[in-house]
Amino acid sequence: MSVLNKAYFHDEAAAVAKLESTIWPEGPICPHCGSVEKIYSLTGKTTRIGLRKCGNCRKQFTVKVGTVFESSHIPLYKWFQAVYLMASSKKGISAHQLHRTLEVTYKTAWFMAHRIREAMRTGAFDVFGNGGGTVEVDETFIGHDKTIKPEHTKKGRGYHHKHKVLALVDRETGKARSMVVDDLKAKTLVPILKERIAKEARIVTDEAGQYKYLNRDFADHQFVRHGIGEYGRGEIHTNTIEGYFSIFKRGMKGVYQHCAKRHLHRYLAEFDFRYNAREVDDPERFAVLLNGITGKRLMYRDSLAGQSPRTVM
Ligand SMILES: [Zn+2]
Fold first, then answer.
1. What's the sign of the alpha-carbon dihedral 147, 151, 154, 158?
2. Among 135, 180, 201, 209, which is 20 to 30 Å from 302 by CA?
């Protein structure tokens, strides 16, 4: 037996039952009128799996109503396989791999993956460094930002044309949060840091110039001087955030080679999600993600409208 033997990964009725227990832990709720009483299961050879009828408003529904699965022609058990693969693959899984493994078209695999990434995005942002904890801040460069025209890139200065990613790690909670930024100037980054990090926090960065005056805005700011070969002094290091970036970069280089800027935030959400749930096992991370998908229903139905998998990834 293995995780993949679970019935909800290959049997549609079991998958519907799993979704019902996720969305309706207390029993079915009519999505039309909100009634929880007199809800009947409709059965019969030609009846859709999981079809219910509300005795109050007389309308029919399944548990998929109002979820991202509602309008999908893909069986729910295949969605669950995709969710499990994305929750458990440390470096991510390409749309091509999903296409081959799930036996759906590449285009379908691409949309499924992006919808699952949307569910990985957490809307609310916890302020890092509350209570005077330590927050490591660093940035990295990835891929090629095609929105930057060649005439604006200076030859020989390697990073200008790349995507810029800023990330924070709260050392106390172990949580990471990354984001795409347009540039690495202090006037761009400092307002983001002030919004997302408590002022009583201790910040640790490298010696990059944009971080020079952070001690004005936070209780403490310490630098690691990589330039003189330093890797840290006791608690003054950026090893945690460098560990985060190393997983991110291996995934982005190995699995998602070409990523357009307009999609990059979703990949970041994916790596943040897995990193932040790294302490739980794969089935638990799958459950957390499934909850995220169903908890976000109706919110992102059209967020991918008009977008297409033009870039191979
Ligand atoms: Zn009803």
1. positive
2. 180
- CB 204 within 8 Å of CB 224: yes
56 C-alpha to ligand 1 centroid (Å): 5
Cα 49 from chain centroid (whole Å): 30
What is the crossing angle of helices 76-88 and 12-23, to 10°? Answer: 70
CA of 21 to the centre of ligand 1 (A): 19
For residue 18, how far is its CA from the centre of ligand 1 (angstroms)? 22
What pTM value is reported for the model? 0.86
* Alpha carbon of 52 to ligand 1 centroid (Å): 10
Q: In the sheet where 163-170 sits, what is the strand order?
A: 176-181, 163-170, 134-142, 202-206, 220-224
- In whole angstroms, give the CA distance from residue 45 to residue 22: 26
pLDDT tens digits for range 176-205: 999 999 999 999 999 999 999 999 999 999
Q: Looking at residue 300, what is its pLDDT?
A: 39
Residue position matching structure tokens 């399944």: 62
Rounded distance between C-alpha atoms, residue 55 and residue 30, angstroms: 9
Query: Which of 34, 28, 32, 52 lies closest to 42 in space, CA to CA?
Result: 52
